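Hi,

I'm pasting everything inline rather than attaching a file, because the server keeps stripping attachments. The sequence lines come first, and each chain or strand is labelled.
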Amino acid sequence: MASRICVTLPADSVQYDIQIADGVLQSLPSIVGQCRAVIITNPTLLTHYQERLRQLLPDATCITMQDGEQHKNLETVAHLYEGCFAAGLDRAGKVIAFGGGVVGDTAGYVAATFMRGIAFIQVPTSLLSMVDSSVGGKVGVDHPQGKNLIGAFKQPDTVLIDPTVLKTLPDREWRCGMAEVIKHGFLADPELLNLALWGKSQAAELVTRAVQVKVDVVQQDPYEATIRAHLNLGHTFGHAIEKVSEFAWPHGEAVGVGLVCAAHLSYRLNLCSASLVDTVTQVVQQVGLPTRIGDLDPQAINTAMSTDKKRKSGKLRFVVLHGVGQPAMVDDVPQATVLDVLRSLQ
Ligand code: NAD
Ligand code: GLY
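And the predicted assembly:
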């Protein structure tokens, strides 16, 4: 199965393709063309794909950043700028992100800022980056104050998704990607929650369907003035959990339990039925993601949420669910209610 989804943002005169197909990596040389290019990736990916990348783009310079969320920071960005200068990259050059969401977000920030912005190609290699982070133009890095606090909007020029690279993705990372898939399912496409349909052999169909949910939202609200905020379902809790765990909890696992927290919060605010809480919990559990916060300190998570950028006018904002396909925003939630939710999920 091969599909092509076109993202159109008329107000910005931006249009780009997301190509999803087994083997689509072969088109990388024609997309890059004759210009100078750097590939930003990490040593884990190079273990599997160094030779392939060399064959595809023999003239490109490969620059590596260390693997892991703890390296998604401005120090790494500075290191990558040095690599871009050393490679002789100029304003006509291209940055190619080859990796998961950490590489994509960091490389995207480099592309957005190097010489005030140069062309950017996303080649996501984790399920999470295929269904979510490579699409929509949010790029950036973490700050000691919190996740993704330094960043920009930089739409890619092309997104190339080759599901065959998922063969080397560890199972734990597949499960992390499923967190964003089911988030999209609860937001807008219940068919994504029918987990019996979605094994690794259906990856191309799964990614196409999940990406479509994100594209539909981003096209309506590219700068998160309104409904794009719904894509943060589970993320106010999730980002705080990542931070408090000092990134021992990967993003996808934190979002998984964050979805459960968001469902409990919705119920406590009398916005949804108890059966919705059960459904969210069951789906998260079925995927193999955590449904409880374990030994993380609820008070510490609550405090960490106070630096989340999803605050508005000093108040924390949460995405809640009235039902499947019925998200909404609330920003007057008492801290005590949030703390109760976290304590109930220890
Ligand atoms: P990641 O980038 O850390 O990748 C997870 C692990 O899988 C890493 O060790 C990576 O090296 C490895 N890996 C990736 N592809 C592989 C492959 N094909 N074979 C073998 N190993 C592979 O994590 P992630 O889950 O991809 O992304 C999480 C990041 O994405 C977080 O920083 C999160 O904040 C960000 N994110 C951004 C957006 C956005 O809109 N920009 C949306 C969602 C998440
Ligand atoms: N992951 C949230 C967004 O892209 O808006």
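The chain has twelve helices and 13 strands.

If the labels don't parse on your end, tell me and I'll reformat.
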